[in-house]
Structures
1.
Amino acid sequence: GAGVSQSPSNKVTEKGKDVELRCDPISGHTALYWYRQRLGQGLEFLIYFQGNSAPDKSGLPSDRFSAERTGESVSTLTIQRTQQEDSAVYLCASSSGGSGGDEQFFGPGTRLTVL
Amino acid sequence: GNSVTQMEGPVTLSEEAFLTINCTYTATGYPSLFWYVQYPGEGLQLLLKATKADDKGSNKGFEATYRKETTSFHLEKGSVQVSDSAVYFCALGGSARQLTFGSGTQLTVLP
């Protein structure tokens, strides 16, 4: 079956503009995660959705970042008033359960460049 | 909080050499431990995992043993191939559902 897909694959924007990144998880996966990967670094957790529960937003770096998910399907990550330090690869992952021991399946990422 | 410390890279080896990439962790409770791999131009994918102490995860000739006494999960392979060239990430999954990742180790295997 299809894996996790993300769009766009690349996004170049000017400082101060808003951007919206999209993630389509694997069908049937109840858990969805957003991570950020800065150049040469590991992944930083941003936000987690599990079914219809309130999302865990503890990793969002500022109030310029927000995310939504409709039921158990598509999620969008929005960054308002982008800054140069927001440049990174944004990765989405999904898993069939919400346990810390579950395998997470990753999408190819969206490379964001803020000029 | 949870944290993962991973061997700094880059690591360059000749084909058929022995590989060790060190990983240690700090966590509360009983986390699950993972190694993820990112091949050039591809997305992150699970290589192996272990969910409790003394478990050994293995896949594609790679192995890692969950050592609670030393809080470690070192990745090993007895004979690396050129096709193993990739970035390897150690990760921890605990009571918080998200994974905590190490900084990654770039491995290059020369023919």
2.
Amino acid sequence: GAGVSQSPSNKVTEKGKDVELRCDPISGHTALYWYRQRLGQGLEFLIYFQGNSAPDKSGLPSDRFSAERTGESVSTLTIQRTQQEDSAVYLCASSQRGSGQPQHFGDGTRLSIL
Amino acid sequence: AQKVTQAQTEISVVEKEDVTLDCVYETRDTTYYLFWYKQPPSGELVFLIRRNSFDEQNEISGRYSWNFQKSTSSFNFTITASQVVDSAVYFCALSEAPRGYSTLTFGKGTMLLVSP
């Protein structure tokens, strides 16, 4: 498809387990962002990738969170030893390079920690 | 630090009414961008508009219009003759340009409910 694709759409897991979320950006978009949206809240920035540059990890809430991206393709967000407060929708967005470029979002992964 | 405030948590209107969603922002930069996104019940965020800090011209797109005023640090969004399909959460967002990329700072959103 032409849009940002995220998988899985829903994930339910037990506290303490690791989870991996996947994002496939729009073809040709070099910038990729991860955000977290807690219930009834706005989006919180987590991490930004641009090509082969070092990522901006300034939004990651703890060292249990990590993300990878190979070149300008798929990205994975990993949460280790999940906690109940990690329950949220995790949104991925991609854009063309440069300031002010509109970000286009995927449908998100709804993560529920039991 | 940058900040976006959407003071209206929820607005309810009847179809065909006009409605304005407020957005106030804070930034220390002179170059920045403002955005509005729509999040319908299905959950996907839909990009509506981008404005840069040097362009204060108001914009109209169909039933949608945006009023950008740097003097009051506001970027308000008006829907004319609202429809049920406009029901959604609307987010205002800000990005600062100096780093060369656009990490967005979002407001908490305004939920708009349009009743038939």
